[in-house]
Amino acid sequence: MSMPTATSSGNPAITDREDAPNFLRQMMLIREFEERALKLFTDGELVGMCHVSVGQEAVAVGVCSELRADDYVASTHRGHGHCIAKGADVGRMFAELLCREEGYCKGRGGSMHMADVSLGFIGCNGIVGAGIPIAVGAGLSVQYRGTDQIAVAFFGDGATNIGAFHEAMNMAAAFCLPVLFVCENNMYALSTMTCNVSGAKCVSDKGAAYCMESMIVDGMDVYAVRQAASELIGKIRNGGGPRLLECNTYRYYGHSKSDTRPYRTREEEAEWRSRDCIDTLAKKLIDAGAITQEKFEAMHANVLKQIEDSLNWARACERTNPDEVGKYVFAE
Amino acid sequence: MREVMYWQAINEAMCEEMERDPNVMLMGEDVGFFGGAMRVSRDMYQKFGAKRVMDTPLAETAIIGAALGAALTGLRPIAEIMFVDFTTVCFDQIVNQAAKVRYMLGGQVDVPLVIRTQGSAGKSYAAQHSQSFEMLFAHFPGLKVVMPATPYDAKGLLKSAIRENNPIVFIEHGALYNTKGLIPEDEYTIPIGKADIKREGRDVTIVAHARCALQALEAAERLKAESGIEAEVVDLRTIAPLDEETVFESVCRTGRLVCYEEGHKNIGVGAEVSARVVENCFDYLDAPIVRVAAMDIPIPCAKELEREMLPNVDKLMSAVRGLFGDVQMPGNAVNVVTAR
After folding, report:
1. How far is CA B54 from the centre of its chain?
2. Distance set, CA A205 to CA A208, B28, B108 (Å)
3. Which of A60, A182, B70, B188 could form a disulfide with A81 if both were Cys (CB 3.0 to 4.6 A apart)?
4. Which among A60, A79, A71, A12 is positioned nearest to A225, based on CA atoms?
5. How many structural domains does chain B have?
6. Does B165 touch chain A (CB under 8 A)?
7. Active site residue B139
8. Over the stretch A239-266, which tens digit does the pLDDT of each residue have?
9. A130 and B65 in contact by Cβ < 8 A?
């Protein structure tokens, strides 16, 4: 096993890369989708649960940009970003949040069970850690069928203290399964600082128990994430077995709508916001002349328009039909 | 027809389905070279190899989680959990994940997953290796729960379970593995969700499942010989979905119902069957419904204690005779459900 390595600044040539504006746009799309979803809750248009990943977008985009369409992703209760980064349609996602028949899960799942299985995105999950062994099962299926797909398990730092994480890591390592474990370490499991309740100094240390190559990256830097993901996925796809990627990141909002964040300081939040994944990349691109300020603003306006158009499309969709409440329990 | 043992019937069902469909595979603790803790998968590893008969870590959450992930992505896994008691360790994966994923995702996925497990009371295995959990799993929409009593039922139902696109909890009875029975030479399946009237009778309906169905048959023969009472024995075979139709039809004919099970009485299968019968067949009942089940205490190790708390043929017979007014009601294991 190799020791965790720290990388932060990413690839110095990123400003020349053609895909940079696209990454910027994808992160903005996730950001604005979730900001808009929060507003819908505030306005009383949405009901139920909504855990947003605002601040963590670079992890979703960085990892998913290295995935193929036929690779699998299992996600968490905070999974809107992963879903969008894997290619999901934000209109159908809004429709799901608004409990419309055209929603991805026909109003049965809502925010916590968003999924587009046709994209290999096999589901967000309401139970912390539960998606991790399911992703390992997708990896098992890949190995069984002899294809070169991979499976990705996204999870938070809190999940790394639960048994399902360790059972899944162990099984993947024992059978050399094609699984990338991606920890979004935002430091807090709701209010509890993970470092105060874990015997390991960092999440990536937990990979050592399973002789699993593990890396730590700056999860606020989309290119750092992408570079690490690229390296690890390359090895996984070539039959090298599972890898663990720990991305240090931050959720700007609370765990959920009701969390007013008394357990952390506004200064700490400001410090993380000063390293915002979107602002940082935009500034780099503008400073390097890769895009202009006007282009950036136009891109942002375009994202906002896509969000509003998608939302309005979703609003116009039909609500679910109570007569069909029992549909989809069992396959025929 | 030919005679096989219960374990062989299960083994044959798995082998035939694995030959029929290359995506069917078996995974679990010790199922490979060792042939399973109960030796049900013996020789399958040699026949199909380690990939299709896969020894897993001792990690129930990983076993069911991985089997579910595989089921969502193209395989049809059979995941073995050594004792039904151990399903508590992976309850989340069964109840929150496998049972609900199709519904939560609005029908985007099928879940062709069979969870094979086993249990039996009466072996002095004590409180954590003797339990009945069928009522737990039956409670959750999205799961089907199958419990065969004979080699014939075991093979036919397991083959159907493996071909289903829904998650099935298939609970074998650990005390029946070496019992014998006849099965057809040719291939056959048995539909899930259909009870079987294992003995016809005009006087009283005994609803039971797994080993209790066989014990009910014994009780019925003795009742006939001793008292002339003709008991009908309905073997549920599937706990969820419950075959109400067969139960109702039988109770409406006999006018009397005794529910007999190995699990605890409190919120048991008998409680559900009783409630449904009262809701639907009230006017046909000639006597209060009686439940004969295990006492509501943990299962002890000591033989004499375990015998005291478990139901048995004698307790069942007493309960049936009680409905005909010629014996006094027996002790702890039998209570009367007030039907009015």
Report:
1. 25
2. 6, 28, 37
3. A60
4. A60
5. 2
6. yes
7. no
8. 999 999 999 999 999 998 889 999 999 9
9. yes
CB atoms within 10 A of CB A124: 28
Q: Which of A104, A122, A135 sits opposite B106 (nearest CB)?
A: A104
Say if residue B213 is in the same domain as residue B321: yes
Report pLDDT digits (tens) over B196-255: 999 999 999 999 999 999 999 999 999 999 999 999 999 999 999 999 999 999 999 999
pLDDT of residue A322: 97
Domain of B162, CATH number, reads 3.40.50.970
Q: Are B200 and B176 in the same domain?
A: no
**Residues B166 and A332: beta-carbon distance below 8 Å:** no
Calculate how close chain A gets to B38, using CA atoms only, in Å: 23
**B73–A113: do the CB atoms touch at under 8 Å?**
no
Has domain A17-314 been given CATH number 3.40.190.10?
Answer: no
- The per-residue pLDDT for B331 is 41
DSSP structural state of residue A84: H
CA distances from residue B90 to A138, B85, B162, B238, B263 in whole angstroms, order as listed: 18, 10, 21, 22, 20
CA triplet B243, B177, B81: central angle to 5 degrees? 75
Q: What is the ipTM of this complex?
A: 0.94
B65 and A134 in contact by Cβ < 8 A?
yes
Judged on CB neighbours under 10 Å (0-12, 13-18, 19+), B324 is: middle
| A270 CB neighbour count, 10 Å cutoff | 9
Whether residue B191 lies within 8 A of chain A, CB to CB, comes out as: no
Q: How far is B14 from chain A (nearest CA, A)?
A: 18
Q: Enumerate the H helices of chain B as residue ranges.
A: 6-20, 44-48, 60-72, 91, 101-104, 134-139, 151-163, 211-227, 244-254, 269-281, 303-309, 313-323
* Candidate from A113, A125, A144 with C-beta closest to B75: A144
Nearest Cα residue to B152 out of B179, B117, B121, B116: B179
Work out whether strand A151-156 and strand A72-74 pair parallel, antiparallel, or are unpaired: parallel
The residue among B52, B94, B103 with the most chain A CBs within 10 A of its CB, best to mutate, is B103
Tell me whether the omega of the peptide bond preceding residue B241 falls within 30 degrees of 0, making it cis: yes
Residue among B53, B72, B165 with most chain A CBs within 10 A, to mutate: B72
- Please list every residue in chain A whose beta carbon sits closer than 8 Å to the beta carbon of residue B51: 144
- Partner A contacted by B88 (CB < 8 A): no
- Beta pairing partners, A185: A248
Region A279-300: what's the mean pLDDT? 94
Q: Residue B297 belongs to a domain with what CATH number?
A: 3.40.50.920
Domain layout of chain A by residue ranges: 17-314
Which residues form the domain of B249? 196-336
Same domain, B127 and B207: no
pTM of the prediction? Answer: 0.94
Q: Are residues B218 and B290 in the same domain?
A: yes
pLDDT tens-digit profile of A180-189? Answer: 999 999 999 9
Distance (Å, whole) CA A330 – CA B195: 20
